[in-house]
Design goal:
Blueprint (H helix, E strand, L loop, with lengths): L1 E2 L4 H26 L11 H20 L4 E6 L3 E5 L4 E5 L3 E9 L2 E12 L2 E9 H10 L1 H8 L4
Helix pairs in contact: 1-2, 3-4
Length: 151
Amino acid sequence: MQRVSSNLTIFFKLFLPTAWIVFFTVFTALLFIVDDQQLPFLTSPVFKYPFLFLYLMFFALLYFTIIQLKRVEMGPDSYVVTNYFKTYRLIYEDISSIHIIPLGRLQIVTFRLKSKGKIGNKITFLASKHLFQSFLESHPEVDQQLKKLIK
């Protein structure tokens, strides 16, 4: 198995959301707990409720994008997907389509699966362009199989 995911995946998947959620959850909770007389600007409804709305919107954005990232390792017959807690081995024939978004030296790759499994029906990962291309060049049969699915 050869890793194709970027090393930044663990930072984006685990560290960034954890730090953001802890800091802003505590700050948001304090806005509603602190006495209005101590911090009149921060505890006014004009600041409190828009901040709560933005907090919830950004939390949803984090959940539906960054937290959904997976780590992927590919081999000649199958690939391994992990969310850093559980690991699954899947075969290439289960992929129905592939969508790639280039981001400089990185790319966001989404494998849409034919049916829903324990990991879902969509696998999104942050791939290193160099590692992904290196794997495809060393495994031309997988490259041909995956090129048919790219949309």
